[in-house]
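Quick check before the chapter quiz. The format below is the same one you will see on the exam, so make sure you can read both the input and the output lines.
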Amino acid sequence: MKKRKTPTRYQDGENQLENGISANNTEFNHSEMGQYAIIELEIDQCLKDEETYLFRKTLQKVHSKFVAEEEISYKSKVKPLMSRPYIYAIAAAIAIIIGIFGVLQLSTETSKTGNSGIFAQYFKPYQNEYITRSDEVRVNNLYFALQAYENHDYAKAIVLFNKVIEADKSQHMAYFYKGVSCIEMGNYNGAIESLNVILNNENNPYYAQSKWYLALTYLKLNNPAIAKQHLDWLALNDRYYGTKAKEILKKLNK
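Here is the expected output.
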């Protein structure tokens, strides 16, 4: 604010009023210099108040304008990302992904449950029909192995069948019962390895039985493609297992 110029003859009166020396001096107040000095001070105070008010109003306008511009700038950046169509698109994409994953998982779980269910329905340990002799060490081991098998002590049976196989690798009965024992113990890879030895000779008396238990083992492992190969052979070549094989094939082909 520019300071007003006061005539020299009145400056002393203003100074006196500002310093409080003659504010209550009646003689000075009624003088011409005193009256002018009082008027000058009142005018200065009014101007100071008016300029302060205008300055505050200007600051308020500038602040309001700044806030409004910032809000517009922020909305222009955020709106495309947070608009409803964008949110709906994201939600729809997530829903589709979850749906596809759920269908695939459900399909996989259903397949596993179905194949395992077929295994549980048809699997039964093979009944021992062999009568052993006790005149050879090999036969003795086989006898004890089959005893353990009949007593459902499959872990012990596997150990004893291995001893029989070590003594005579042509002992197909040991391979077969060892394979079934491995299935009972949940050692499906061991069962496949043992039963496949028998399939090397189609004239083996345990050939069809091995095909049957291999088919069930592959179903348990959720590998219906290989299981079907063994089931197809049984359906065409074996009367006893062929009927059951056809039943399973119908279930797998649904």
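If your answer matched, good. The domain at 121-252 is CATH 1.25.40.10 (Serine Threonine Protein Phosphatase 5, Tetratricopeptide repeat).
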